[in-house]
Each structure stands twice: as C-alpha cells, then as structure tokens.
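Query structure, 117 tokens:
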C-alpha cells in the first residue's frame, strides 16, 4: 500500500482546508484497513484526527469533530479531509495512514499546511 497526500501548503485563517490522500496498492473500500488522518504541529506530538473504515462511517477526535469531515471517494480511490475555520494552531504536517488493528502501519510522506494571513 502506498499513500500520497496533496493539498495547499498555505491557508488563511478562517478558511477551509481540503486535503486528498491518494491510495494505491489497495482499494479504499477494503475490509483490511481503516484510513486515518494524523497531524503533527511544530514541537508537539502526533495527533489522531479521525478515520474511516470499511463501512464508510467516519470517526473523529472529539476536539476536532466540529470542524472536521473525513470522506472517501470510491471511484478515485482517495481519502479526503476537510477542516473549516482554520486557525494558526492548525499549522502542522498532515499525514494519511493505513491502520490495521489500531496501528498505523503505512504512512504517506506528509504534507505541510501553514495557516497564516
């Protein structure tokens, strides 16, 4: 499985972030994995943002749930992330990952997102 994140590197405060994770080597609808978004802000640890499983139902971090939407495109074989009302503290490297029994086994290379006016 290979994962590749893409999206804008710079977003202004209050705007909406849209990221795409292109999945290859596996179907996004497979029963084998959960597909996960994780981020790491400067000087902080990894933060689990949410995931979507074989059912297509997404689960979210309680702290981000109000601003975050995770979806998948079964035709394009992509995992998608939208986060609205961006704040400077959302500046981070954003990763998508394939998760197996709770462990993120395969990661994308990550994409830097900076929130700044």
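Result returned for the query:
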């Amino acid at each position: 499985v290979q994962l590749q994140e893409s999206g804008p590197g710079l977003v202004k405060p209050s705007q909406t972030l849209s990221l795409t994770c292109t999945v290859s080597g596996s179907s996004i609808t497979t029963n084998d994995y959960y597909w996960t978004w994780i981020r790491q802000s400067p000087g902080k640890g990894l933060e689990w943002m949410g995931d979507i499983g074989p059912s297509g139902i997404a689960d979210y971090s309680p702290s981000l749930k109000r601003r975050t939407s995770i979806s998948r495109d079964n035709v394009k074989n992509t995992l998608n992330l939208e986060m609205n009302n961006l704040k400077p503290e959302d500046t981070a490297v954003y990763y998508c990952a394939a998760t197996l029994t709770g462990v993120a086994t395969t990661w994308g290379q990550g994409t830097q997102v900076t929130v700044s006016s």
